[in-house]
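By convention, the token line describes the chain's fold. To illustrate:
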Amino acid sequence: DFRVPQRIIQGVPKPGKLPVTQSLITIDPVDHIQFSALYKASQDGNSYILRIWNSAYKPVEAKLNSQFKFKSVTKVSLDEERVIGEIQQCSNSWIIPLGKAEIVTLKIEL
């Protein structure tokens, strides 16, 4: 039996430099871009795979922001084997063009 009862522990706020809330990654526009997966790439230790999809039936330009500095963001094939293209950076955001109802797999290097 793999069922384990949940334990809920309420933390106590402590003074510090971190904000009360913070996002690892934000993607805009939130009404059309759906977050599907984020995991560490198995080939190397310095990159992550992010999968998003456009739920709109029109092309959308998504903006990817993070509290971390990315070295590069690359659009790769669904099986993560082929590089399809580089994603351009504009100030602190990475601009990701998505076609209508398109699934995009991104390789993010830290």
